[in-house]
Design a protein that fits this description.
The chain is of the alpha/beta class and about 210 residues long. The protein has a single domain, classed as Nucleotidyltransferase, domain 5 (2-Layer Sandwich), CATH 3.30.420. About 40% of the residues lie in helices and about 15% in strands. It has a five-stranded mixed beta sheet, with helices on both faces. The chain is globular and about 40 Å long.
Length: about 210
């Protein structure tokens, strides 16, 4: 028998450490009195046109300095992350900035369906004002049902498994740079996706425009 203390010393000497699962951090506060939108998006996430259906969500990233929240907007057509925002606080501005990035970059036509959970950020007055100003149709998941927004959940799982969990971020700035690199350099442009006939989101959109 080898004691845990001896294993710890040997691992420390070899520069090894255990890969542990981070404690779950809730990012959805659905206990509010703000208006809720109906669920307009079913669980059929295959979409034939770009900029017709966007999905979004928030996740929490651990750093040694403190927590960092990441909000993303994904186009279901190509699974491309078209908007994102990071902040130390989980306020409405976090999701507003991510959604506005997507609108400014992609300029979708009227009638875009924007699907999220029932979190207070997405139900806030400021977020609904942006939705109204850009003629977007809001959709929300059923209460407590993560499968209604499975694409966003899948992206966060991939991000954390491939990029976040293997790292020990010293501070938020280090985490921000790593997440920027993952989204804009690797995920959108290089990482293949089964829903895209095993092309990256950018390559899939280029291919579909040429058809």
């Amino acid at each position: 028998m080898i004691s845990r203390r001896r294993i710890g010393r040997l691992m420390n000497r070899a520069g090894l450490w255990c890969k542990t699962k981070k404690k779950f951090k809730a990012t959805t506060d659905s206990k509010h009195n703000k208006p809720l939108a109906p669920k307009l998006l079913g669980r059929q996430f295959a979409v034939s046109q770009p900029d017709r259906y966007y999905v979004g969500d928030i996740t929490y990233i651990y750093t040694q300095e403190g927590g960092l929240y990441l909000a993303v907007v994904t186009d279901l057509f190509s699974r491309k992350v078209v908007g994102w925002s990071m902040d130390s606080r989980m306020k409405a501005q976090l999701v507003n900035d991510a959604f506005l990035m997507a609108l400014w970059k992609r300029k979708p036509i009227k009638g875009l369906i924007w699907h999220t959970d029932r979190g207070s950020q997405y139900a806030s007055d400021s977020h609904r004002a942006i939705i109204k100003a850009h003629h977007v149709i809001q959709s929300m998941s059923c209460k407590g049902n993560c499968w209604d927004n499975a694409v966003s959940e899948s992206f966060f799982h991939t991000l954390k498994t491939e990029w976040v969990h293997p790292c020990q971020f010293r501070n938020r700035d280090e985490a921000k740079q790593a997440i920027f690199d993952y989204i804009e350099v690797f995920y959108n442009r290089e990482r293949i996706h089964s829903a895209n006939d095993y092309l990256s989101p950018v390559d899939y959109e280029i291919q579909q425009k040429a058809v």
